[in-house]
Amino acid sequence: MRQHGQRYQQFHLPSVQVVLDLVYTYDVAVTRLSHGISEHELSLSAFNVLMILSRSANKQCPLYEIGELLLVSRANVTGLVDCLERKGLVERLVDDNDRRVRMARITRAGETLLRSLLPRHYSELKRICSRLSNTEKSTLSTLLTKLRHSVQSSPEGKGLRKKTKKGELSNG
Fold first, then answer.
1. Domains, the chain, ordered by start
2. pLDDT digits over 132-145, tens only?
3. Sheet holding 90-94, edge to edge
4. Fewest CB within 10 A of the end CB: N or C in the chain?
5. d(CA 84, CA 71)
6. What letters, b where the CB count within 10 A reaches 16 and e where it falls short, cover 90-120?
């Protein structure tokens, strides 16, 4: 990597290493977290939809807001909600205040499944971070937030959506 980078004036090894480590760590963590959830035929994104709904007012949320929180397209949200609805874990509603707004609400079956998954999920999050002290976890969280804000405030990142609420995976 160092030799390749020497050909480019803009190459900065510490920056390249940070981003590669971040991407690799994300991939490893997602793979590990997905394992326990996939046993229930859920993707991590579908699990996060259930988490968003379980913590929302009246256990429901507009589909567009779910998309913003998950940072996925409207089509992806529709597919996730369709899948969860077929499994009986969520139901679709129309917003009483604005009939154009589609809502998703977690069902009792969805809440029951989520309650059964969360102990293992939280244990796995704790295991993933077990080699870090609480101070290191806090420092890392602060640094990742700073990095995210740097990406979002760059000219190329101006169009990136910002999460308005914390998603389960990223803040477990």
1. 13-154 (1.10.10.10)
2. 999 999 999 999 99
3. 60-62, 102-106, 90-94
4. N
5. 18
6. beeeeeeeeeeebbbebbeebeebbeebbee
**Closest by alpha carbon to 103, among 47, 64, 51?**
64
Per-residue pLDDT of 105-135, as tens digits, reads: 999 999 999 999 999 999 999 999 999 999 9
Q: HSE (CB half, 13 Å, CA atoms) of 82?
A: 6
Q: Model-level pTM? A: 0.80
pLDDT, position 91: 97
Q: How far apart are CA 45 and CA 34, in angstroms?
A: 9
Which string of DSSP letters, residue by residue, matches 118-137? Answer: HHHHHHHHHHHTTTS-HHHH
Percent of the chain with pLDDT over 70: 91
Instruction: Write the DSSP assignment of 26-92 as a string of letters.
Output: HHHHHHHHHHHHHTTT--HHHHHHHHHHHHSGGGEEEHHHHHHHHT--HHHHHHHHHHHHHTTSEEE
CA angle 7, 8, 14 (to 5 degrees): 110
Helix (H, G, I), strand (E, B) or coil at 152: helix
Helix (H, G, I), strand (E, B) or coil at 105: strand
